Amino acid sequence: MSEPCQDVLLDSNAYFRLGISIHPLLHQPFGTSPVYSLHVLAELDDEYATSVRLRHKFTWVSQLEYRNDRKTKRYELRGNDRTDAINAFSFLLAYADEEKINLSREDLKALAVGFVKRIPVVTDDQGMTKVADANSIECWTTVKLLRLMVTAGRTDMEKVVEIFEYWEYEKDLPMPLNKLRQLYKEYFGEDCPI
């Protein structure tokens, strides 16, 4: 009997923050009971293609090995799930507008998929987290995902430290430094390396 599988959807920023450091990021499931399977939406490539800033900052994303990794783990909905996600997108958009939370189309689609499929969405975006919390959508931070990956043996603490140092170097911290340090201590039981 195969172990239960838990799909996990990464938003664009979580992918951009982790994809270069843990590669292939998506192709290799990890863990046991459940086995975690990481995915992205096809819209990630659309967002990347239309943003000069993203293409300039994350040049590695366009390389064949990274494109192939994303292609094998695109999360696509069909049939009733697709219809349900379109409806979820509409009410999530209405909620975000009402609360004056500015989210991109890609962010809202990720939340809609998380809502419909009842899967965690990895994001550090505070707006996405607010909308998710109000609509019972499970969100994980990139730090939580890294903790799960260390626990499952998918990566190690040396790589986690490297990732944090990379974020600091790139000036791309996923959250304010004091909160990042607090989460690091909570999840890894030691002082943050940055």
How much helical structure, as a percent, in the residues? Answer: 55-70%
Binned strand content: 5-15%
Query: Runs with pLDDT <50, length 5+?
Result: none
Total DSSP helices? 10
Assembly type: single chain
Number of domains: 1
Order of helical and strand elements: EHEHHHHHEHEHHH
**Overall number of strands:** 4
CATH fourth-tier homologous superfamily: 5'-nuclease
Strand order, sheet with most strands: 2-1-3-4
- Please identify the structural class as seen in this structure: alpha/beta
Bulk shape: globular
Main beta sheet strand tally, sense and closure: 4 strands, parallel
CATH class: Alpha Beta
Mean pLDDT: 94
Radius of gyration: 16 Å
User: Could you name the CATH topology?
Assistant: Rossmann fold
Distance between the termini: 43 Å
Architecture in CATH? 3-Layer(aba) Sandwich
Topology, element by element:
Blueprint: E1 5-10, H1 12-18, E2 35-39, H2 43-50, H3 52-57, H4 64-72, H5 79-98, H6 105-117, E3 121-122, H7 126-134, E4 139-140, H8 142-151, H9 157-170, H10 177-188
Parallel strand pairs: 1-2, 1-3, 3-4
Helix pairs in contact: 5-6
Give a short summary of the structure.
The chain is built from ten helices and four strands; from the N terminus they run βαβαααααβαβααα. The protein has 194 residues and is of the alpha/beta class. The protein has a single domain, classed as Rossmann fold.
What does this structure look like?
This protein is of the alpha/beta class. The chain has a single domain (5-142), classed as 5'-nuclease (Rossmann fold, 3-Layer(aba) Sandwich). Helices cover 56% and strands 8% of the residues. The chain has 10 helices and 4 strands, in the order βαβαααααβαβααα. It has a 4-stranded parallel β-sheet. Helix 5 (79-98) crosses helix 6. The mean pLDDT is 94.
